[in-house]
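Two entries, shown back to back:
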Amino acid sequence: MARPASGKEVLEKAKETLVNARTVEELRQAQAVVLPLEYGFSIDQVAAVLGISKGWACQLRRRFIQAGGLPAETKPKRGGRHREIMSKEEEAAFLAPFFDKAIHGGILIVGEIKSALDERMGRKTALASTYNLLHRNNWRKLAPDKRHTKTDSN
């Protein structure tokens, strides 16, 4: 015998969401809550009605219930700078003196930037972090050609 369905405290909100759902995901979440509580469907039957897997039907129910009866975001948001050490503005301000020096005929030395970054952070950072910082701020390495383009190709 299966466990009785939980979520009775959000049943009324789920019924409201059935009427006012703006997306298919919101509708499915509400249906995943209402069908077992109102009509006694098993989770297998709910999954068959919604056209999703049993595990996904459980997740939809759980997310709706944990969100307190509000349709929860079904897909985790990706992207962003979760482990950033400086904001974009701080990065631009940090690199400005180095870029100014390079623009006025100087050479951009990554080792100097790395040591300045280490000093600013108060710890050692990876060299790859320095290169990633430079690439995020539109720096690219310009290497001289092996030969001049106007030379004779004999």
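entry 2 starts here
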Amino acid sequence: MAEIQIRTLAMNFWATIEHTLRYKYDGDYPPEIQHRLERAAEAAYLLDEEMSEIREEIKEAQKYYTEQRSELR
């Protein structure tokens, strides 16, 4: 059996931290730590969303400028 995961940088960062916490911490997290982890997970998600949007905008801009250059030639 094998598992393949494709992650963004933010997802990989979160998974690495979460994995370390699970193996180093015995028992349930205190409520404040749990709340902070939830906020961090949300921040990682929002970062992924923002970076995806930026990537798409850059790809569209590159396409536009490539087309403009072609028309000028």
